[in-house]
């Protein structure tokens, strides 16, 4: 299975949702940088399950156990290797799914690709559980970037019909994003947050689900990062972001809405401010020709509705060779976008750090 990404900084994820452990190996991290493990734990807790009624009730500590690469709180230069134990699996909830594939899951396609022996308990290696090691690796990258003046923050732009307050593309309020990052639903508007929580809880009680749109901002990036054509900022970010289970779309700047607008509205005119080049707008999301222009990076990620819902759905039985109905059991998020925000931040941080290493930027 393809479980690695990165160019200078390579990340390989291993494990399965109901296996003994999950983890990752990260090669290419700079040597000698101090890592705040308490801050890393706080970041990973944002993704951890079982923290509210509107997320899965599976409870996991998500405590990484480092095998190499981190010595006395500092990156040692060797590949960073760690694992996270799975302690709260309920595999019996998935016994019938070997025979009856779940709609909109990888159960059927994985079996077609790998055969009957593939482990799909809880989603196996395709599960959102594998985003925990991504958050560990990405949490370290976030700390390295922040020390260089690069800050990353995201919020839930929309869940169902509930929209959050608009964030400026040219001067995003990163403090506001940081302030709501540990809320049950990371929306800047408290009114929208309450409406979203109510909506998600209603869906949970109905046995249904919804998707959402995550909007991310990165500030402090220098102009000139990236490459044209097939190795640009958008290219490598999109490839990695689509590796997050449930992602159905990635857009930059004004995205598809901007594609339907006029050029006179969407162009980003240049101006000099105190000797620095800026743009009046930032509809391109801080990128032109695959290369950063020094403005904030802006991207959106669309997450599909959780496929595991309690409603009865049509499927088929391999054993019987006939159509049948399926009711999925187990513990599932009614909206995976809620816990996906730190994952999107983590993956973005890893790719941006990889780009900085392209330029041989001194990081210690």
From TrEMBL:
Cofactor binding, per record: Reduced FMN (FMNH(2)).
Gene Ontology process terms (BP): amino acid biosynthetic process; aromatic amino acid family biosynthetic process; chorismate biosynthetic process
Source domain of life: Bacteria
Molecular function as annotated in GO: chorismate synthase activity; FMN binding
Main function: This reaction introduces a second double bond into the aromatic ring system.
Reaction catalysed by this enzyme: 5-O-(1-carboxyvinyl)-3-phosphoshikimate = chorismate + phosphate
One Gene Ontology cellular component annotation held by this UniProt entry: cytosol
Family stated for the protein in its record: Belongs to the chorismate synthase family.
Protein encoded by which gene: aroC
Subunit structure: Homotetramer.
Pfam families in the record: Chorismate_synt
PANTHER family linked to this entry: CHORISMATE SYNTHASE (PTHR21085:SF0)
Protein name as it appears in the record: Chorismate synthase
EC number annotated for this UniProt entry: 4.2.3.5
Pathways involved: Metabolic intermediate biosynthesis; chorismate biosynthesis; chorismate from D-erythrose 4-phosphate and phosphoenolpyruvate: step 7/7
Chain residues that bind NADP(+): 47
Alphabetized UniProt keyword annotations: Amino-acid biosynthesis, Aromatic amino acid biosynthesis, FAD, Flavoprotein, FMN, Lyase, NADP
Cofactor(s) needed by this chain: FMNH2
NCBIfam families (alphabetical): aroC (TIGR00033), PRK05382.1 (NF003793)
Class in the EC hierarchy, top level: lyase
Keyword Flavoprotein (UniProt): yes
Sites where the protein binds FMN: 125-127, 289, 304-308, 331
């Amino acid at each position: 299975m393809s479980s690695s990404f990165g160019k200078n900084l390579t990340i390989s994820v291993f494990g399965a949702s109901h296996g003994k452990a999950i983890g990752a190996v990260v090669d290419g991290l700079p040597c000698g940088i101090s890592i705040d493990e308490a801050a890393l734990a706080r970041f990973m807790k944002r993704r951890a399950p079982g923290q509210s009624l509107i997320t899965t009730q599976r409870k996991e500590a998500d405590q990484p156990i480092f095998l190499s690469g981190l010595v006395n709180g500092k990156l040692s230069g060797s590949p960073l290797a760690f694992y996270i134990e799975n302690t709260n699996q309920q595999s019996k909830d998935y016994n019938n799914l070997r025979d009856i594939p779940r709609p909109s899951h990888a159960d059927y396609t994985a079996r077609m690709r790998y055969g009957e022996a593939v482990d799909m308990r809880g989603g196996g290696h395709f599960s959102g559980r594998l985003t925990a090691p991504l958050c560990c690796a990405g949490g370290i990258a976030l700390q390295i970037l922040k020390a260089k003046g690069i800050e990353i923050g995201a919020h839930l732009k929309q869940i169902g019909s509930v929209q959050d307050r608009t964030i400026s593309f040219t001067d995003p309020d990163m403090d506001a994003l940081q302030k709501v990052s540990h809320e049950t639903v990371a929306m800047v508007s408290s009114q929208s947050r309450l409406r979203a929580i109510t909506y998600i809880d209603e869906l949970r009680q109905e046995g249904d689900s919804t998707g959402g749109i995550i909007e991310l901002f990165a500030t402090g990036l220098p102009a000139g990062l990236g490459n044209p054509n097939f190795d640009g900022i958008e290219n490598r970010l999109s490839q990695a972001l689509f590796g997050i289970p449930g992602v159905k779309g990635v857009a930059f700047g004004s995205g598809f809405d901007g594609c339907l607008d006029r050029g006179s509205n969407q162009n980003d005119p240049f101006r000099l401010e105190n000797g620095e080049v800026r743009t009046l707008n930032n509809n391109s999301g801080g990128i032109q020709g695959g290369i950063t222009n020094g403005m904030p990076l802006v991207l959106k990620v669309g997450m599909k509705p959780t496929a595991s819902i309690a409603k009865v759905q049509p499927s088929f039985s391999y054993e019987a060779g006939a159509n049948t109905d399926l009711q999925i059991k187990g513990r599932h998020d009614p909206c995976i976008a809620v816990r996906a925000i730190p994952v999107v931040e983590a993956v973005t941080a890893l790719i941006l750090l990889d780009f900085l290493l392209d330029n041989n930027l001194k990081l210690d």
